[in-house]
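Worked example

This section walks through a single chain of length 231. The input is the sequence exactly as stored; nothing has been trimmed or padded.
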Amino acid sequence: MGTKKFCVIGLGHFGFNLSKILSEAGAEVLAVDNHQDKIDLLADKVTHAVCMDATDKRTMQSLGLNEMDAVIVAIGEGFESSLLATAIIQEIGVKKIYTRVITPIHERLLRLMNITDLLVPEATAAAQLASRLLIPGIIESFSLSKDYGIFEINAPKNFINKTLIEIDLRKKYLLNLVTIKRVKKSRGLLTLGEHEEIDVFGVPTPELKILENDILVLFGNEKDVSKLLVG
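Given that input, the structure is written out below as tokens.
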């Protein structure tokens, strides 16, 4: 399996971090923006960073986008530019297109263009924050349906130094443990988590003992997670 190749167009907060994460994961990343200052900030973190107008078809055709595994249109302001860039990418013959949704009208127009892979990072962030506010103790959450999802929580105090057999999550709390994340090195005060080091245990064994500051990744019903956290 060869190295994945991606192009990210638009280097706002979302596009910048997406480019960086993909690159750190070993992918080849071409980052495109029409502001040189953003290109300069990212240039040494990705494979290529190009200052270019994504609505200029001639220049976009020179990038070899049809050889990419996917192109992500991450433009966050002015959906006209996003629509035009997306249309140009379609004409070039890109295999997979992901486009960030800016407004409900923008979403409707993208669907009319048969763009089905739509990104709404603000909605995802809002849903995660709502879970954290409504159920204190949840670090992150990802909904799989109306009732079920994946939840990251700090290990409750009454779980510390107990094995998974002793805790018996499934029987007592109706929850399944997906994995455990153990922090090896905490994030610095101003590092935005860049230097945090975490061990992930894959599929934990029944004999594994939970330690203080462990993060439990759970699958189940939000109500059951809430009951566990309330104690």
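What to look for: Residues 187 and 196 are 4 Å apart (CA to CA).
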